[in-house]
Design brief:
It is a single chain. The chain is an all-beta fold and 111 residues long. The strands form three sheets. It has a three-stranded antiparallel β-sheet, with no helix packed on it. Strands 1-2 form a two-stranded antiparallel ribbon. It has a two-stranded antiparallel ribbon with strand order 5-6. The chain starts with 9 loop residues before the first strand and ends in a 12-residue tail after the last strand.
Length: 111
Amino acid sequence: MNPSLEGGDRSLLGSAGQFGVDCATAPEARRRIAASAVGVYPSAHGGVSVDFARHLAGAFQGGRLAIDLASGSMPTVVAGEQGDAHWYAAVGVSFMLGFGAGARAADQPAD
């Protein structure tokens, strides 16, 4: 299901006449239909990260590992009619490394 909306609330339907399609990848889809979805669709997002090896003297300045979680509901529209809400969940992980000039000690004079 790719509910691609083009020009407001007008969507292109795929060959089956049920779900929206991406206009660029489905040029044969020429049937337009007006559709809308109304309601309250709650969602939540949370994340946590851990920094490590911070403020080292060398070029390696540290790293971070992060995990993001999201969940919520979203409406479905099939053949122009709003259906029941469906729940979704998503997980993301990122890992970053930092490199740069070495840190100078506070008691060390500038050049």
